[in-house]
Amino acid sequence: MIRGKQKGTIEEQIENVNETARQIMKVIPNYRVVITHGNGPQVGNIMLQMEAGSHPPHSRPVLPMDVCGAMTQGQIGYLIQNILGNLLLTEGPPSRLDSSKKINVATIVTQVIVSKADPAFKNPTKPVGPFYTKEQANQIGKDHPDFTIIEDAGRGYRRVVPSPDPLEIYEKDQVNALLDAGFIVVASGGGGIPVIKNADGTVKGVEAVIDKDLAGERLAVDTKAEIFAILTDTDKVYLNFNTLEQKGAEKMSVSEVEQYLDDGAFGDKLKGSMGPKLKAAIRFIKDGGKKVIITTPEMAAAALEGKAGTTITP
């Protein structure tokens, strides 16, 4: 939704969502569709705004991460609902559906179960929010002794939070009920709101961030999807990325992906970019999925037909 050097204005985000929604329109005639999304820039903006407003003269309270994640689910879900819903109304319903029925898009504010015992809670690694000077970091540490703040690659100091493994989509029954009723569903945005189960079965939000690709895989499994499409900013997965030997991979089996990972064949930026996507792809196939595609939003429809992107199969 915010690409390259864009500033993230609402006009830019609307244009980007519109482009992706038009690609989704091409997919709807042949598939039931569940949509998920990231939220990194948006939640970062919210945290910056709250930090700016936390000082005099306003002195407004800073909200926790789980609430910030919920705010972005509403924000981004609204844009997808509005834009895709309008396209469905103005350009007509897909042929596979009853043309007399209105097609609805629904966003679910989605909680994702994580384990209280997840080792990530003892080793926060996910940077969130703005950069700080050393003096600012020291003061924030005094004001919020529960925060973990580290130096981030010489660019300043940032807060880091745990990134636990997603175990279950808490609202999976609601999502499946909407799918069965013919809705297009937007769910688990930004990796979902991380919650832990209490002894009495209730759930409580925690200060953490779930990887969006791993949460997307969990959503795909919990909705019994056959195909998991990961749409990103590269047209396919590349071996030896960013080197003279760079080569696009059009088709790979899970065993080939695992071997390439062991060999370090995906380049030196794997950890923060393609790594989670490939990990999610492996999980999805091993969890019973039939196919994963990795490509750009513009090539999604073609990739589903095997004409673009990277396809990963059992």
Low-confidence stretches: none
- Kindly report how far apart the N and C termini lie: 31 Å
Text of the CATH class of the largest domain: Alpha Beta
Number of beta-strand segments: 16
How many structural domains can be distinguished in the coordinates?
2
So how many helices? 9
CATH architecture of the largest domain: 3-Layer(aba) Sandwich
Shape: globular
Write out the strand line-up for the largest beta sheet, numbering strands in chain order: 7-3-9-10
The helix-and-strand class reads alpha/beta
Largest sheet: 4 strands, mixed
* Strand fraction: 15-25%
What would the average pLDDT be, to the nearest integer? Answer: 90
Order of helices and strands: HEHHEEEHEEEHEEEHEEEEHHEHE
- The CATH superfamily title of the largest domain: Acetylglutamate kinase-like
